[in-house]
Amino acid sequence: MANQAYLLQQLNKAVLLMVTKLDQEQQASLDELAEAAALSKYHFHRIYRLLLGETCQQTQLRLKLAKAGQALTLAQNSVTEAALQAGFASSQSLAKALQRELGSNATDLRSDPDRLSSVMQELARP
Questions:
Q1: Of the candidates 93, 91, 86, 17, the residue with the CA atom closest to the CA atom of residue 48
Q2: Distances (CA, A) of 105 to 3, 38, 108, 125
Q3: Quick check: 16 pLDDT over 70?
Q4: Which of 21, 35, 84, 110 could, after both became Cys, cross-link 28 (CB 3.0–4.6 A)?
């Protein structure tokens, strides 16, 4: 059990790096994430998915969607601005990701603030 707690602590360092890179409008590479967690790439990727239930790429997409959702809550932001702020190449990229992950689009989410809030909470979970 102590080993699992240690690994979760190390993985948390990688997730914090993802968030930091996202704030800098960059995406962390597998090498950077493994280094942050002080694990080999192979071991990191395997342990990450085993303990967190998703891949690094899925986590990074989830965090980008959360950032886009946060930008959508601001009335002055267009969907395109929200997409670009979150690191998507275009509003179409955001639309495809929202449809694939949530079965919805940005306009529908924006028009239902309660749903947008609950979706953001789910996406931003650690």
A1: 17
A2: 41, 38, 6, 20
A3: yes
A4: 21
For 9, 41, 71, 115, the CA distances from 112, given in Å and listed in that order, are 36, 41, 15, 5
Q: How far apart are CA 126 and CA 107, in angstroms?
A: 26
Question: By C-alpha distance, which of 90, 33, 88 is closest to 63?
Answer: 88
Of residues 102, 75, 72, 99, the one with CA closest to residue 84: 72
Q: Where are the domains of the chain?
A: 2-53, 59-123
Q: Which residues contact 17 (CB under 8 A, 6 or more apart)?
A: 28, 32, 33, 36
pTM, 2 dp: 0.84
CA–CA dist 42, 115 (Å, integer): 38
| Angle between helices 56-72 and 41-52 in degrees, nearest 10 | 60
Q: Which residues contact 124 (CB under 8 A, 6 or more apart)?
A: 63, 66
